[in-house]
Amino acid sequence: MADPRVERLASVLAHYSTHVRPGDLVLVRGMPEAAPLLLAVHEEVLRAGGHPHLMIGLPGAEEAFYRLASDEQLEFVSPLQELIVEQFDATINIRSDSNTRELSGVDPARQRRRSKAMTPIMKTYLERGASGELKWVGTQYPTPAYAQEADMSLREYEDFVYGACFCDQEDPVARWQEIHDMQQRLVDWLKGKREVRVKGPNADLTISIEGRVFINSDGHHNMPSGEIFTGPVEDSTEGWVRFTYPAITGGREVGGIELWFEKGRVVKATAKKNEEYLHEMLDADPGARYLGEFAIGTNDGIQRFTKNILFDEKIGGSFHMAVGAGYPETGSKNESAIHWDMICDMRDGGEIYVDGELFYRSGEFLI
Known about the structure:
Strand content: 25-35%
Largest sheet: 8 strands, antiparallel
Radius of gyration: 20 Å
Number of helices: 12
Number of strands: 19
Strand order of the largest sheet: 13-12-9-6-5-17-18-19
Mean pLDDT: 95
């Protein structure tokens, strides 16, 4: 018997997150482990009148690529990838790894080389997404590997995932509309503001948001979502931050990260675990040492760290920042081959001031 939560999630992805319309070209991408959700999304896209294109990966293929590819192959950009990013109307990406640490042994320099080659594709993707030409959403199908990372049983993790997406409820879209309305009040209040000050046990930062826009992330790009975010003025960030959770990317866990900023640029970076990899990524290109995003998580349905950025950056009571590429719709001009989110818990007395007014304390909005 099919899990009704899978059917609800498929419906949300096709009809709410990406608003598939008749004639839309829709990429549906994932791994075999996500077959129930992939098939359900495929059906929902058909019901909406779209043209679904299934792209199924294989476990081990990405690791083999980084292990065996020549420099020429690392730098090759597939015409198929260009076609998708330039001409498709929607992409629905379903993460469903069977081994979350598959790339742990890959040389970071090779990953950096690949990321640099993909920068033009990333730029087009972000620009079309910002203009509304490309509708995109990413989600996750619960697998044993993700459950193990989160220190949960598979059944417990399934409950966590579908609960965070509100697909354990009869009408998840109604719940997402409530999230939208709550966050829109915050975004409206922030409009036209100039400076953010973050203070607390783990941060002392000043960031300019003058001329920038806060985005209401309400489940149209990430599922689950629950955050408001902007792109800081590139040369404005000053101060220090210690991220309270490990930052995980490219199959590696980097723990105990501390960053120091001067005139927007990371001038010093340390980590208690995998510090060398941190430096490799910050040296990926000139934009990698500047912030592309500042965000506050609002999803109170996510209260524990699971070593998965899709969920962890939305933790109610946290803020996160991303070094690297910014989202053009926020006004960000920062370009980079990377976009790496790092999370800091604020529930221990952390405060956020906006233009000198106390906006947020210990995980609660005060306006």
